[in-house]
Amino acid sequence: MAALWLAMLLTPACCLLPTGPDPNAPIKNLRMDPETKRLTWDLSGNVTRISCTRESRPPVRAVNNSYCFFAWSSPCKATNYTVTVTHPPFSTWILFPEPGDTPGAAAENLSCRVHDVDVLTCAWAAGRAAPRDVQYELYLEDGKTLARHRCARYNTDARGTHVGCRFDDISRVSGYLQAFLFVVTGSSGAARVPCTEIFKPLCEIEKLTPPNITAECNQTHAFMEWKMLSHFNRDFNYELQIQKSAGAAAMETVNVKEHTSFMLPNPGSYTVRIRVREEFNRLLSEWSAPRRFVCDPEEDAHTRSLRTSLLAVLGALLALLLALLVCRRFSLMQRLLPPIPRMKDPIGDDFPHDKLMPWEASREDAEEDCAVAEVQLAKET
Ligand SMILES: *[C@@H]1O[C@H](CO)[C@@H](O)[C@H](O)[C@H]1NC(C)=O
Ligand SMILES: *[C@@H]1O[C@H](CO)[C@@H](O)[C@H](O)[C@H]1NC(C)=O
Ligand SMILES: *[C@@H]1O[C@H](CO)[C@@H](O)[C@H](O)[C@H]1NC(C)=O
Ligand SMILES: *[C@@H]1O[C@H](CO)[C@@H](O)[C@H](O)[C@H]1NC(C)=O
Ligand SMILES: *[C@@H]1O[C@H](CO)[C@@H](O)[C@H](O)[C@H]1NC(C)=O
Ligand SMILES: *[C@@H]1O[C@H](CO)[C@@H](O)[C@H](O)[C@H]1NC(C)=O
């Protein structure tokens, strides 16, 4: 019994070994086409049920017995693809891509970012074990259509090696919800340079750009509005930081969900900045540059005119006060130094030279004051 089990186990085992080209093998020349992602072979003889396996994933059925399609096959990481035929029992495998002999020559630390709404930038470093003549090239492969987009604008280091790439208008090659395989291939006269890849949906690698705020405002309200620009993300929340300049201490933070406007009551003159958050991909933009809005400059003019008129009124009041003071002083003086001619009134017509009379009287008694002279005059009459 054990011998039978052993025989059963050993029989297929013999065929798994990729020995030299077996002239009777039903499947020959197994290969991977990296552009179409098809694992294909040359078929000979009458075979049934061909299936393919990548690494240890579940097997997939071959199309028309002629190829297997692997959408997410890596162009850079050596992967084991196995093909199995049910009848006659047969199996073979390949590694694709072939493992490189200088793994340290591949580009390192590849990272890509969408920023400033339209721009895609990738950067990498030359591999530490890369030969001196190494050159790198980048392409994007559309995850759905498999279309490839080669880089047109490279950044180079001091040696002229490409270490970055920029797509100025990424929305021309990609729409919403698109994902790309970013691949940096390497070439050198001295060694076979492996490639480096990352797979990312663009929505995940976007550095959000905070929107521009515009405002319409008057004494009572400031209506702020903004337009969020992004080709790859849609659901945003906003954070506004508002500083009313009067007082300058209190900073007000407002969260605006989904809307792209905000009404601020009693705005006066204020400064505002905004940042945007995307919850699903956990993206957060920088703060925008602060913008200052002077709401209701008429009120400022109004207060200014009010101030000047107040000053005018104050001036007038001061003038009045001064005038009053002068008048009072004048009347006091009048009271202290009463006009002498009036005092001689009771003396009446008896004197032919009114004005001279008191002085003549006083001359009679120079030591006495005016009042006494008066009395004396009255007595004399
Ligand atoms: C291939 O094999 C199947 C059974 O395995 C058989 O029915 C069929 O006739 C064969 N065809 C040829 C062309 O030999
Ligand atoms: C299968 O193969 C036949 C003959 O080679 C061909 O006519 C047919 O189009 C193929 N079908 C597919 C889905 O490739
Ligand atoms: C590839 O996978 C097959 C089994 O599917 C295994 O027999 C073979 O050893 C593997 N090759 C490598 C290089 O790992
Ligand atoms: C890649 O990044 C790691 C971690 O930041 C760093 O240690 C390494 O030196 C970088 N590689 C190159 C070639 O710059
Ligand atoms: C925002 O507005 C400023 C000037 O008003 C302009 O220079 C800038 O390009 C605008 N930015 C965006 C993203 O619209
Ligand atoms: C100020 O603007 C708001 C909204 O735009 C409006 O409802 C309100 O009537 C305006 N107030 C004045 C005093 O103009």
TrEMBL record:
Protein name in UniProt: Interleukin-3 receptor subunit alpha
Compartments it resides in: Cell membrane
Keywords in alphabetical order: Cell membrane, Disulfide bond, Glycoprotein, Membrane, Receptor, Signal, Transmembrane, Transmembrane helix, Ubl conjugation
Molecular-function annotations in GO: interleukin-3 receptor activity
Regions crossing the membrane: 309-327
Oligomeric and partner information: Interacts with IL3. Heterodimer of an alpha and a beta subunit. The beta subunit is common to the IL3, IL5 and GM-CSF receptors.
Main function: Cell surface receptor for IL3 expressed on hematopoietic progenitor cells, monocytes and B-lymphocytes that controls the production and differentiation of hematopoietic progenitor cells into lineage-restricted cells. Ligand stimulation rapidly induces hetrodimerization with IL3RB, phosphorylation and enzyme activity of effector proteins such as JAK2 and PI3K that play a role in signaling cell proliferation and differentiation. Activation of JAK2 leads to STAT5-mediated transcriptional program.
Signal peptide residue numbers: 1-15
The Type I cytokine receptor cytokine-binding domain, residue ranges: 109-199
Keyword NAD included in the entry's annotation: no
Membrane-protein topology: Single-pass type I membrane protein
Gene3D superfamilies: 2.60.40.3850, Immunoglobulins (2.60.40.10)
Gene name of the record: IL3RA
Family: Belongs to the type I cytokine receptor family. Type 5 subfamily.
Keyword Transmembrane (UniProt): yes
Organism: Microcebus murinus (Gray mouse lemur)
Domain IL-3 receptor alpha chain N-terminal: 27-97
Gene Ontology CC annotation, any one: external side of plasma membrane
Superkingdom of the organism of origin: Eukaryota
